[in-house]
Amino acid sequence: MQPTVFITGATSGFGEACARRFAEAGWSLIITGRRQERLLHLADTLSAKTDVLPLVLDVRDRSAMQAAIASLPERFSRLRGLVNNAGLALGTDAAQDCDLDQWDTMVDTNIKGLLYSTRLLLPRLIAHGAGAGIVNLGSIAGNWPYPGSHVYGASKAFVRQFSLNLRCDLQGTGVRVTNLEPGLCESEFSLVRFGGDQARYDSIYQGAHAIQPADIAETILWILNQPAHLNVNSLELMPVTQAWNNFAIHRQ
Ligand code: NDP
Ligand code: 8X3
User: Fold this and answer.
1) Ligand nearest to the CA of 145
2) Mutation to probe ligand 1, out of 34, 39, 151 (largest number of atoms < 8 A from CB)
3) pLDDT, tens digit, 9 for 90 and up, residues 186-225
4) Which entry of 116, 152, 201, 205 is annotated as an active-site residue?
């Protein structure tokens, strides 16, 4: 029987690249996202290669998530993989200048949405047992501070600790958990963060040789294909061009 992976946020970036890579590797797919047209187009494209179930879902909508997951068709009922990918950053202003609605959106998506998919799908991963795994999209922003990261980085620090804590509770079930922590990657992520400012987006990636979504998809497939006795707890990735800088000192 083909393994099945559930991917949140498959309409662009890492999620879409994962859908394409896992389909190539022969996995069945459950793919989700809010943008219906993109999701259905992707499902249509990949259905020539594998069994695909598209679910138009907002991860923040707990009752819609519950209903969709409760009524998964039998052939998709047992999961080998969950890629908790849906997420976003909004803005880079200093905390004191931020819009509280944007903070709500980041918390509701990056934290609460990830909690809903995890809790609702855990029984199906546990039913699979040995070899099953969750890959959560953390970030270097959950490990390291930088100006303007405030709630986004804190939401990813939540994801990191939640991933480690999950491992304690899942001990004995065979279900593995990984927090994947990428640095600068080229995707719509920055366009969303910069409110659609294409020129600012272009300048961020100019000459940076950023990580590509296909690199992340390859890494996630590698993580989930590790031998069943092995858990990758966390994995931080940066492009070679990215590194740390000095501590900031404000001089009077
Ligand atoms: P993209 O913006 O390209 O993709 C984000 C995906 O999340 C889209 O498919 C979007 O789908 C989905 N999404 C956003 N909000 C919701 C929601 N409420 N409900 C359902 N789906 C939602 O970004 P990336 O692929 O780069 O980012 C994916 C993950 O990786 C995020 O969690 C991000 O924080 C993390 N990350 C990104 C890095 C980067 O530099 N790009 C680095 C480190 C981590 P739709 O809009 O159709 O709902
Ligand atoms: C995205 C990476 O460096 O923009 O999570 O915070 S960064």
Assistant:
1) 2
2) 34
3) 999 999 999 999 999 999 999 999 999 999 999 999 999 9
4) 152
What is the 3-state secondary structure of the chain? CCCEEEECCCCCHHHHHHHHHHHHCCCEEEEEECCHHHHHHHHHHHCCCCCEEEEECCCCCHHHHHHHHHCCCHHHCCCCEEEECCCCCCCCCCHHHCCHHHHHHHHHHHHHHHHHHHHHHHHHHHHHCCCCEEEEECCHHHCCCCCCCHHHHHHHHHHHHHHHHHHHHHCCCCCEEEEEEECCECCCHHHHHCCCCHHHHHHHHCCCCCECHHHHHHHHHHHHCCCCCCCCCEEEECCCCCCCCCCCCCCC
Q: What is the residue with the minimal CA distance to atom 6 of ligand 2?
A: 141
User: What structural domains does the chain harbor?
Assistant: 4-184+213-237 (3.40.50.720)
Ligand 2 within 6 A of CB of 140:
yes
Residue pLDDT, tens place only, 5-22: 999 999 999 999 999 999
